[in-house]
Amino acid sequence: MGADFEPVGPMPNSASENAVAAEDGWRRSTPPDLAALRAELDRIDNTIHDLLIERAHVVEKVAQSGKPAAFRPGREADIVRRLVGRHTGSLPAQALFRMWRELLAGTTGMQSKVTVAVAETGPGAVLTQLAREHFGTMTPLRTHGSPAQALNEVSSGAATVAILPVPTEADNTRDDWWATLATRSPRLHVIARLPFWTARAEGAPAAQALVVASAAPDASAADRSFLVVELDNDVSRDRLTQGLTAAGLTPGAIILRRDAGYARALIEVAGYLTDADPRLSDLTGAIRRPAVLGAYAEPIGGEGA
User: Fold this and answer.
1) Sheet harboring 116-119: ordered strands across?
2) pLDDT at 68
3) Whether pLDDT at 4 is above 60
4) Cβ neighbours of residue 227 under 8 Å, at least 6 residues apart?
5) DSSP secondary structure letter of residue 174
6) What share of the chain has pLDDT > 90, as a percent?
7) Measuring CA to CA, how many Å separate 290 from each of 105, 238, 265, 284?
8) Does residue 255 sit within a domain?
9) Which helix (H) or strand (E) holds 189?
């Protein structure tokens, strides 16, 4: 006879035990209960809301710290870049961006009243749309027919910022709002560029705008600056570019206007510059030291930004 042995474990020996095992397998493969999923979403929503309340309390403390300006576009740019950079999952990164733009606009409004003056010089209210996307649905907007009117709103204190069209070479000289920006009293500065998220939906207007305020810009991790330079009238664009490079500046777009006695140029350069930058004294051909009009955080764009 063969050797005796003991079973190593219980073995199903009835139809009922087989049925129980089959039901357990079915339950493991069945999608979770919808009510349970909704309860989990409610729990997550409450957690998010609690954190928003906590964040608002911190913002209140920041407002009480005595910092000079509530609107910090460089700081906001770094926040958005960091969050978009760490984002994962199927939620579109642009949806995350829109949520935080609304949140940042709301918390800025907690610290001081923000009013936006928009120079809507073309059809379609495209600059108004850019302003609304960036400054939130609750921020008051006022539209004006010219950059000068919008700038006057900021100079008088009636508006916090002005939204102005990005200057181009094709502009009429009477539209060169940048030419006297540094000489206004109080002084005004370029502090941001819109849109900060540059990827646009198909069919959306590809408008570009600059944001101008009485507060100076704050630096972010990646910036560009604007200079206005008065030059001898015989200075060519190539010579100007060579002079900027020799001074240690990396030029981008240049708008050059010539008058009877001198030329004036609006120059975009890489980096965050201030009036104290020593490189501004080294520009050959300049009649006087260049004026820094301000700076803006370089925009991001695309789902993989």
Assistant:
1) 141-144, 116-119, 161-165, 209-213, 189-194, 291-297, 223-232, 262-270, 251-258
2) 67
3) no
4) 265, 266, 267, 269, 273, 280, 290, 291, 292, 293
5) G
6) 66
7) 33, 18, 10, 11
8) yes
9) strand 189-194
d(CA 284, CA 266): 16
CATH number of the domain to which 227 belongs: 3.30.70.260
Domain count, the chain: 1
Domain of 245, in residue numbers: 50-297
- Judged on CB neighbours under 10 Å (0-12, 13-18, 19+), 254 is middle
d(CA 291, CA 277): 11
Which tokens go with 234?
Answer: 């015989």
Give domain status of residue 3, yes or no: no
Specify the amino acid at residue 190.
Answer: V
Quote the pLDDT of residue 233. 87
Residue 82 located in a structural domain: yes
Spatial separation of the C-alpha atoms in residues 160 and 288, rounded to whole Å: 30
Nearest to 198 by CA among 295, 281, 298, 275: 298
Residue 103 lies in a domain: yes
Q: Per residue in 222-269, pLDDT tens?
A: 999 999 999 988 889 999 999 999 999 999 999 999 887 889 999 999
pTM of the model: 0.85
**Pair type for strands 141-144 and 116-119:** parallel
Distance, in Å, from the CA atom of 201 to the CA atom of 297, rounded to the nearest integer, reads 22
Task: Kindly give the residue spans of alpha helices, DSSP state H, lying in the chain.
Answer: 15-29, 34-63, 73-86, 93-111, 126-135, 147-156, 237-246
How much is the pLDDT for 15? 54
For residues 205, 211, 217, 223, the Cα torsion angle rounded to the nearest 10 degrees is 20
| Residue 218 three-state SS | coil
